[in-house]
Each structure stands twice: as structure tokens, then as C-alpha cells.
Amino acid sequence: MTDLAVALILNGRPCEVRTPAHRTLLEILRDDLGASCLVLAPRAAGCQVTTVRGLGDGDRLHPLQEAFVTQGGIQCGFCIPGMILTAYAFLRDHPAASRAEIRRAIAGNLCRCTGYTKIIDAIASVVPGRGAGEPGAAGG
Amino acid sequence: MARPAAPSLRERLRVVDAWDKAQARTLYAADWQMPGMLHAAVARSPYPSARIRQIDTSRARALPGVAAVLLAQDVPHNTLWTDVPGQTSEVGPLRARIQVLAHEVVRFQGEPVALVAAETREIALQAAELIEVQYDPQPGVFDPEAALAAGAHQVHEGGNLLARLAVRRGDPDRALAQADVVIESVNRCQFIDHAYLEPEAGVAWIESDGVLTIRVSTQVIEHYRDVAEVLGLPQNRVRVIGTYLGGGFGGKEDVTVEVFLGLLAWRTRRPVKMIWSRQESLLARPKRHPFILRYRTGAARDGRLVAQAVDLLADSGAYAYLSALVLMYATVTAAGPYRVPHVAVDARVAYTNNPPTSAMRGFGAMQMVLGYESQMDQLARRLAIDPVELRARNALAKGDELPIGQPLDTHVAVIEAARRAWEALGPRRAPSTPAHRIGRGLACNIQPYGRIVWLHDWASAWVGFEMDGSLVVRTGTPDVGGGQAASLCQIAAEVLGLDPGRISIHIADSALTPLAGTTTATRQLYMSGNAVLRACEGLRRQIVDVAAQMLETHAHTVALAAGDAVTQDGRRVSLPKILRECARLGVSRSHLAVYHAPAGDPVDLERGGGRVFPDFTFGAHAVEVEVDTETGAVTVLRHVACHDVGRAINPQSVEGQIQGGAVMGLGYGLMEEVVLDHGVNLSTLFATYLIPTSLDVPDVEPIIIESGEGKGPFGARGIGEPPIAPPAAAVANAVDDAVGVRITELPVTPERVARALGLLGEG
């Protein structure tokens, strides 16, 4: 199989990898570039790619990462990079999101440890003026 | 924020692992890379029951890039035993045998038949496909009742009955005959999967000193002994390094990839990585035991229980794994957290050609809750007694004996938990449409923590000061994501008056950390917690004695606080100075402690019984649901979960365990099921095996009771398993409250509710 050259901008730095077309972005990020994704790698060509390591600033956590730590949103941690990035992208587009909207926004990311409440608490805590808010029902 | 100084005992902050996980710096088992590393794959049986006529590996071996292909005959000792290493067990080892690779016979779909190691994962998977196995499919048996019938297909030689346990207390037949009311029910619960987000994975290599080293996602690093036994190596030539797990829930208690990795690394003399796909994990890993629960409960008119007769039948699938122990947990807790003067329990577990079942959070005790709490709810309805009041009239109390004869010697918080959970539901909501009905359900539970007393459980930990006053903790505890390492650091910080930021902890390395046993059975806070507590108390005595000499006072007047030794009148000396003085005097700056749990001899449950477990955790969950009377859909609107945790070492972590366990319990109650068709698994993708998303469950409101009476450090009780147990029964009870139908089979799907409501016609 012929490898493709894929140029992308990873956490602000240009880089290029050679990869077979069927590999996912997750595989090249994790195995080749040390970072993670379900998108086929060639689709990322020319794109800006931000991973959870690109959110903070060196030894300082991004406020969303900090909220996950301080609100107890992290147990085994396996789902956390996906959760944080989903929340990051969602809050960038919906800076005044309600708790119910946050609950819907993370519905595509599975977590088996936390029961989601503390993850939603963490995300809600960085919405200005919202705090952890009132508990919600399923589907709400 | 910059890397923070870590919390003291009562602060709501976890740092040991959460900081790294928030930045994706944690290297899970699959993340490990080594030069020259091979990639491994497993060839598995497509049949649930077959004889192997012939295996041809020539095409697989000929594939460029293939380094090794192994069959059963290549495995030095092709047997794994159920016995959890390092501890003893009464499970008959002959009956508990598991073949590493299938030899002559396959007994379940997905049973491993061959191993491959190759230069890439793609080549390894392709080679596994090229292994040609000729099977003679055999008849099988797929239901535990059918398995115990005369003439059933024999899964193993010697019959399909794997284990049987019984309890007899008083005269239940007579008491049932004389009871004012008798409630009878049959409940069935299903196969489910752990569905941790991290599938099984690991890397093995041979160290420069010749030690076979395996870095693996496991709840039990002591499996190094199993690897040694299978390979025929001395046990001290195999080392297991446990990673931070991406979830375990009992599914990484039995051996997963480590034996396969050991075999392939030993054969190829190269590092080898094995990662199971989601499909492979859902297909072939042991599941939760399905049970058929037959209950008859007799009571007086005032609601007091007089007798209970329970018949339990569980499906072990094709191998024993931990089934006999699961049956013990079920049998001991079958009557629930209630006083019942006359009890009979008859419990059996049978082999079938279904996937094996073994440990999963709740371990037999959780399945019983549907049985005893459905009975309590039906009894309350029959006698028109408030559900909380009925439970309060029957709840066990400290000083009572369980039907198995074990006295309860710590606080029993069932009544308080039931009242507080029920009251916290608040005002009843109005239905969202005229087609909807609101209902409420309650379920209480009893769950052991710590291992069966005749397993003689122990855990060890080492703590030592560096010269600068920073502390090192070493203990074999695997961290499954429940904050195990962080809680141990908090205990050390509390005893030694240290900022937790001054503590480094090294865990889960069978060669370099003192063994602490399994992260299972809700035992680590109890066991490793007590070991770390004792190690720190020993170290504290050593340090304080020297500090007292330096401060010219008595040791009992010296406290350790903020990295100094301090006298009552405020004079201080710093830890580095004390440690230099220790060095000069030859006083050790470290302490190794072994905590032995209270042990006892095996008891005969049928003849009086006695102590089986160290202690129990009690709780109650209350839910409010809305049922759609047109579709049968059940939505959980509120969920309150209350447990007595003795003392919350880390309240935020305790809340997280309660919330996460409750949601896993709702998944079990509402949606999860491994669907099998004659042993063929139809639920091998997350598209077909559904676990709760954020939209399927409500926020769970935790209520923590701190009775101060637990057997863990500072009076803590274990809380890892207990919260998973009540939700399914609470939901079934709430559905009955809402629409007046009793769902007896899990999960409570819209189809089952609709059928019970008569919406689907007959049949």
C-alpha cells in the first residue's frame, strides 16, 4: 500500500507524517506523534489539530482541565481527553451553555466510571455565572 | 493552575493521577512502546461447542513478518487455576481448570485456540485468520436449568453442577405454612459485560537480567505466579508491572493477556504487545452471572418477616473461574439486610456452553437485591404498609446475626439510609403528559467488603523518608481508577503530618513493591489502607522518638505537622534535621507493615455457619421514574443513593464511587444485556451492547453516612462495589408504583414494560 504524506498543524506546530490511508488520526497521533481520534488520518491534511496536551500552557492546566481535576470528574481517566476536548469545542461555540445542553453535548462520549455527574459539574463550573447548577433528569 | 500541593485528608481534591490524566500523560497498558516490539493476536473458536479435529498453521507461518504461531501443544503447562494466587481457596481446583489454549475441545464461542506474534498488528491479525482449524461442531447446552437436566450435554467430565451451597436456619417450611401472608416470585437477571473503556492490553519483554517482565492492565499483579506456572519458570523469574487501569470492575481480576504475552515473549525473545479489540473483549471475556432467583417470603400482618425460602441457580458458562465464590456471596446475602428468623437458601451454579462468567462489581451479592427487594416491595403493597416503614420494621441492627450465623459487630445503617434516600426525593413531580405516569421505588442492600475470612487475606506496604523530608510509599496495590493510590497518599499525609505534595507513591510492581493483594472485593482501602496506616504509624514512632530526644521532651508530647516535629509549647525541629539525627543514631527511616485481616476457619453454612466476611457495607437507593404508558419507556427522573461508608477518607472520591456505581446499576437495570443465541454472542460492538450515555441517566445525588464504624483505616468501610447493587430493583419497584405491573426480568426494557401493560397483545 502506498503511504500518503499528511501535513497538519498539531497543537500549533506544523508537522508531517507518512501513513497508509486507512490509519486513523488516533493511530498516527498516538503511535507516531505521541498524542489521540476516530477520523481517518488523511482527512486531517492541512487541518489544525488540537489535542488535550495542546490546551494547557506547559505546566499550567487549561481552566477546563483544572475543573475536571478539582471537581472529581476524573476516575480511570481513559475517556477524559475526549470529554475535555468535546467540552472545549462545545463551550467555544456555546459559551453560556446550560447544564442540559452540556449533558447533550457529551452524549457521544462514553464514561463507565463517573456516572457523568461530576464531568457535567466540571464543565458547568467554567461557564461564567453558572457553577455546578441544579441536578438534572435523564434526557434533560 | 500550577501543579498543586496535594490535599489533606478532608480536602476535596485528587492529584496523584488526575493531574496526569487531564493532560493525557498517563501511559496506559496499550501506550507502551519498545524497540523491536512484536504485535500479537489470538485465534478464537467461532463455535460454542466443538471438537478440534486438526489445525494447520502452515499458511500463517509462511506469511512474511510472522515471528511465532503457538498452539496448545506449545504451552508448557496448558492449565490455569481459579485459585487467586497468594491466597488459599476452598474451590476444588480440578473443577476449576481452564485451558490456556484449546486442546481437542472448545467450550464457548471465542475460546482461544492459537497465538500469533508478528512485526505489525495487521500481519498478526491476518496470520490469525490464516490458521486453518477443522472443527466438528458438537451439541451444546445453553441454559443452566437444561444443563442440570438428565441427559444434558456434558460441558466437562463429571457433570454440569459446578457448586452447590445451602443455608438452613430454623424451620422455614413450618414458618411459611403458618405465616399470615406469603409472597412468591421468580426473577431473572441477565449476562452483562464490564465494558470498561480500556480493552485488555499489555506488553511483555525479557529484562537484561533474564526476568520475564509484563506491563499489563490488571487488578491482580499476583498473576505473575500463573504466568510462571504456565511457562514452567520459577516464580521469582516473572515480574508483573500493573499500569493505571482504564477501568476494571472485576473484568481484569482473572488472567487476561499476561499469560499469552509471556508465552510469546519467551518464545520469540522479543518484546510483544497484545491489545484486544472492543469486539474481542465483548466476545470472549467473562461476564456477570445471570441468576434465576426464586423467593418465597412469609410475614405477619404487621409486616414482620417470619420466613424466607430462596432457590438460586446461576450460569457459570463454560469454565469455573470464580463462580463458586460468587455463589458464596449470593448465598450469604440472599435474605438481604433483614432479620429473618427462619431461612432456607439452596444455591447452585452450572456449566453451560455460554461465555464464562466470573467477577464483576457486586460479585453475586448484587444480583440478590432484585430478589429480596422485589419481595419487600410486593409485601408492602399487599399489607398496605409504607415501603420505608416495612423495611424499618425488619432491618438488621448491630448485634444481630445474619442467617448464616455471622454476628454483625459494626453499625448497620439500613433504616437511616432508607429514610434519608426516600426523603431526599422531595415533592413528587407531575407527569410530563397525560400518557405518562410517575412512580417511586426503594431498594436497600448489604454487600461484603474484604475477602472471605478463611482466605487469610493480607496486604503489605513500605513507607520511608528521604533525607529532605519527602516521603516514598511503596505498595503492590493496582489503581483501577477509583483513586486507590491517592487515598493511600492521603492516609500517609494524615498520619505523618505531611503535605501530600511531599509524597511519591509507587504501586503495583510485583518485583519492587510489597505485595498488597488484589484490587477486588472492595478490599483495597480496607486492606492496603490499613497496611499503609500501620506502616506510617510505625515510621511515625521511629521519627518522633528521635525528635523527642532532640527536643528534650517525651515522645507523647510531640506532634508531626507541616513537615516539622512540634512540642506542645511550640518548639519545632524540621524533618531533615531529625532524619540526619536518625542516620547518625542508626535509627531506620523506613517501615514495612503487613496487615492481616481477621481470619477464621471455613464454616459450614448448612450446619450453623459462622463468620464468612470481615464486615459489610449497607445502603439504600430511591428513584423516581416516569413511565410512558404508550411505549413502555422508563425515564429515571431522580436517583438518590445513600451508603454508610464509616468514614469518608476522600469525600469527593466516595461520591464518585457512589455516582458511578449507581449509573452502572441503572445500565444493568434498564438497558444492558449480552444477548446470546445458542451460545453465539450477538452483542460484540458498542452499537449492540449499550451502556448508559449522559442522556440515559439522571444526576445521581449521593448521601454519605459516616457512622465511624468500619474496619478500614479511621473507621472507613469499602464503597467500591455496594452502589451498583440497588438501582435495578429500585427501578422495578418504581415501575410497579407508576403503572401497577411487576417486571421480573432484567433489563427493564420498553418492550418488557409494554408487554406487561398489554400493549403488545398476547405472547
Automatic annotation (TrEMBL), chain A:
Q: Name one Pfam family in it.
A: Fer2_2
Sections of the chain in a coiled coil: none
List keywords of the entry alphabetically. 2Fe-2S, Iron, Iron-sulfur, Metal-binding, Oxidoreductase
- Please state every residue range assigned to the domain named [2Fe-2S]-binding: 51-123
- GO terms assigned for molecular function: 2 iron, 2 sulfur cluster binding; metal ion binding; oxidoreductase activity
* Entry superkingdom: Bacteria
Q: What is this protein called?
A: (2Fe-2S)-binding protein
TrEMBL record, chain B:
Lineage: superkingdom: Bacteria
Quote the SMART domains the UniProt record gives: Ald_Xan_dh_C
What Gene3D superfamilies does this protein map onto?
Aldehyde oxidase/xanthine dehydrogenase, a/b hammerhead (3.90.1170.50), Aldehyde oxidase/xanthine dehydrogenase, molybdopterin binding domain (3.30.365.10)
Q: Pinpoint the Aldehyde oxidase/xanthine dehydrogenase a/b hammerhead domain residues.
A: 23-139
Where is the signal peptide, in residue numbers? none
Organism, per UniProt? Candidatus Segetimicrobium genomatis
A single MF term (Gene Ontology): iron ion binding
Which Pfam families does this UniProt record tie to the protein? Ald_Xan_dh_C (PF01315), MoCoBD_1 (PF02738), MoCoBD_2 (PF20256)
Q: What's the name of the protein?
A: Xanthine dehydrogenase family protein
The record's annotation in PANTHER family points to: XANTHINE DEHYDROGENASE, XANTHINE DEHYDROGENASE SUBUNIT D-RELATED
